[in-house]
Amino acid sequence: MSGPGTAWNSCVTAAANQAGFQPRVVHTVDDFSAVFSMVQAGLGVALMPRLAWTGLNHPQIVVRGVRETARRHIVVLSRAGSTPEPLLTAVREAASKVPVPSVGPFAIAG
């Protein structure tokens, strides 16, 4: 799990609490490739954001999607009263067209 005070730590802790348990955190790291290596070495299990998954495969690791998971919300901040920059408007329009992936094909059996 990421260190205390990070967004990912808050997300995982809230998800665990919602599921009715308190996670027992033994290691904290902010590098998801290190998390993958720790799981590969048998040091525990981990939750990772979909964007952190690099597609690495190892026969001793099973990767599964999590249903009813937390969603990431991205917001745009701009100065009140200012005219929106054309680039900001284009980015907002492009982002609104990006499909949100489902859990479906993410599950990988090892």
What layout of secondary structure does this protein have?
Elements: H1 7-19, H2 32-40, H3 86-96
Helix content: 25-40%
Tell me the series of helices and strands, N- to C-terminal: HHH
Specify Rg, calculated over alpha carbons.
Answer: 17 Å
Oligomeric composition of the shown chains: single chain
In this structure, how is the largest beta sheet organized?
A: none
Contiguous helical run count: 3
Low-confidence stretches: 102-110
Tell me what the structure shows.
The protein is mainly α and 110 residues long. It has a domain at 7-67 and 100-106. Helices cover 30% and strands 0% of the residues. It contains 3 helices and no strands. The longest helix has 13 residues, at 7-19. It is elongated and about 55 Å long. The two termini are 22 Å apart. The relative contact order is 0.14. Residues 102-110 have low confidence and may be disordered.
Quick recap:
With 110 residues, this protein is mainly α. The chain has helices at residues 7-19, 32-40, 86-96.
Kindly list the characteristics that best describe this protein.
disordered C terminus, elongated, single chain, 110 residues
